[in-house]
Write a structure and sequence with these properties.
This is CCDC90 family protein. The protein is mainly α and 180 residues long. It has 2 helices and no strands. It has one domain. The relative contact order is 0.06.
């Protein structure tokens, strides 16, 4: 493998690991967003249904009040008092829901802040640990490559010289055997 191929392979491995981490973090965030979104949708649906029920009940009260208005003014005052209490209760319920939503927003902001912190830690770890180690590995491979690159030419010369020595020794051995 050439240096570039090794570097590309190392870069691909790092990309795969980082993409895996990104995917996991992204999926966790998406899941959390989906859960929160579904809860908010549920609250909205409940509020709409409650609002419809309240609206229908108020319409019923108004009809009864109109009918009873001619009969007894005290009862009208009683119904008005009940309606005000009901409005107060509804207002308190809505305020409670607003507080719940507000606390959910705070929790979401805290969770997002924690996720940002975790991503920062990962980035710093890459910068301070992984990248320097990769650079060290790269420098080792490059220095080893440079050493062997020049010795290959010497190796080929040694093989040729050894072959020539074998031939000369074989010739001299044959000559010495004839002499003896």
């Amino acid at each position: 493998m050439t240096d570039n191929e090794l570097l590309v392979a190392i870069a691909d491995i790092m990309d795969q690991k980082i993409n895996g981490i990104r995917t996991e973090v992204g999926e966790e965030i998406k899941g959390f967003r989906t859960e929160v979104s579904e809860e908010i949708k549920g609250f909205r649906t409940e509020i709409k249904e409650f609002k419809t029920e309240v609206s229908e009940e108020i319409k019923g009260f108004r009809t009864e009040i109109k009918e009873l208005k001619t009969e007894v003014s005290e009862e009208i005052n009683g119904f008005r008092t009940e309606m005000e209490e009901f409005k107060t209760e509804v207002g308190e319920e809505i305020n409670g829901l607003k507080e719940d939503i507000s606390s959910l927003r705070i929790e979401l902001k805290q969770d997002i802040s924690e996720l940002k912190h975790d991503v920062l830690i990962l980035k710093l770890d890459n910068e301070n640990n992984i990248i320097p180690r990769l650079q060290n590995i790269e420098s080792c491979y490059i220095s080893t490559y440079n050493r062997y690159k020049y010795s290959v030419e010497t190796y080929e010369t040694l093989v040729a010289d050894t072959q020539m020595l074998k031939e000369v020794v074989a010739e001299h051995s044959a000559i010495l055997q004839k002499i003896s």
